[in-house]
Amino acid sequence: DIVMTQSPDSLAVSLGERATINCKSSQSVLYSSNNKNYLAWYQQKPGQPPKLLIYWASTRASGVPDRFSGSGSGTDFTLTISSLQAEDVAVYYCHQYYTTPETFGQGTKVEIK
Amino acid sequence: QVQLQESGPGLVKPSQTLSLTCTVSGGSISSGSYYWSWIRQPAGKGLEWVGRIYTSGSTIYNPSLKSRVTMSVDTSKNQFSLNLSSVTAADTAVYYCTRSHSRVAVDYWGQGTLVTVSS
Fold it and tell me: Is the pLDDT at B103 greater than 90, yes or no?
């Protein structure tokens, strides 16, 4: 199985400041035939299902604010919230869908400082 | 707008079989290049992929659960189902049914249903 490791486990950021979450996969999730990384990011608020933010490592899902951005390739990925808003308080998960079993990071909790 | 809704018992006894159904509305389960998955989340913990089913009936299960998992699809009812046998307390979790695409990963989630395994 591909192991997904996120860092940090939690972070507290001031409103309007940048939040950065890292995700490392135990093997590459880059599909060579189309040069796409099969890596997604989700946001989960308490009592709600996760919401897709980013797919293919850097493509924002429909309706996602542009303060959310994804980057990285191969085994190292980053989710950045450029200017943290109060409504961004949540747990964020990375997810590899390159191969089965699909696997998720352990989650990163983002709070307001 | 596609919607998914899980249904099934919220309490299952140890060693019995957990059975859940997901009803898809707002679109045909057979349209597009989608597959349909179950993902679970124990309280306060992370997400675990249980498996997926295609509308052809083809399945892929998580090897960690493979011997106990069965999924099926009923395109006439726009539903797909999960059976998990020989459950223990470790299977207590919120179970989500989801829609996935090989391009965008999981784009739609049900609200989730809590299944507790307890006598």
Answer: no
